[in-house]
Amino acid sequence: MALELYWGSGSPFAWRVMLTLEVKGLEYESKLMEFSRGDHKAADFLKLNPRGKVPVLKDGDFVLNESLAIMAYLDRKHPDPSLFGTSPPETGLIWRAISETESYLIDAGNKLIRPIFFGKGLEKTDEIQEAARSIRQELKRIDAELADSTWVVGTQISAADICLFPLVQIIARAAGKDAAKPLNLELLPMSEKFPNVMAWVKRIESLAGYERTYPPHWR
Ligand SMILES: N[C@@H](CCC(=O)N[C@@H](CS)C(=O)NCC(=O)O)C(=O)O
Question: Of 6, 95, 151, 183, which residue is most buried, by most CB within 10 angstroms?
Fold first, then answer.
């Protein structure tokens, strides 16, 4: 039975799973949840994930939410190519990079992205600028690491890259919006401020199947 992926356009967490499926060459049935229609809060979907959040993966009778859990499940079931390392040190470094993304980028990202995309809280400029400062600090650190490395960890794409990539894309998109201009986020142009990160973005964008993962409403 085909895998089914419940996802939403522009969700960085769903994007992680879509990239994982493409990198592993796995076919799946796409179940696009329209946030504006409230699909993710409908009774049928809440049976799959009572939190009402995407992504959710269905593999026959097995249902799983949380992007990292889904990535780990897919990697265990379809181990080639391995996304969580081929040696103990590599696994440790991949998990460290993932933890850093979860701990230091997501919260700051939300504080910046939500006001810009949804217009609520735009007056909290101090908080948004503080979030932008944290993001710059993280991206600078990653930029330095990518100066002499093709991927965040090791010599092939891993879960470390896949977890980070959609967040970088959504931060770049938010920073480019008109609502972001008066906020002086100092994130743009990203190709000048974080050249190695942007070269890495281009590498991921050139992966086979990448286009299928791109949020339709961003086109
Ligand atoms: N920790 C979760 C986060 C999932 C999440 O926040 N999904 C958002 C979209 S980016 C969502 O479905 N939000 C709808 C809502 O909360 O109402 C994961 O990694 O999967």
Answer: 6
